[in-house]
């Protein structure tokens, strides 16, 4: 995970997920969780960005 994306996770979690995965189900889940509460969106974004590497994961 790059430093810029890590910084974005703490300020705008959906934007960081978008930069890594594009507009897909990970992004929309992050948006919904962030709207419901900032902390759940933050935790989900950190988890999903650490667990799934960028690149070929966009194809799934």
Automatic annotation (TrEMBL):
Subcellular location: Membrane
Keyword Oxidoreductase appears in the UniProt entry: no
One Pfam assignment: Pmp3
UniProt keywords, alphabetically: Membrane, Transmembrane, Transmembrane helix
Chief location bin: membrane
Stated name of the protein: Stress induced hydrophobic peptide
Family: Belongs to the UPF0057 (PMP3) family.
The species this protein was found in: Rhodopirellula baltica (strain DSM 10527 / NCIMB 13988 / SH1)
Residue intervals passing through the bilayer: 27-50
A cellular component annotation (GO) from this entry: membrane
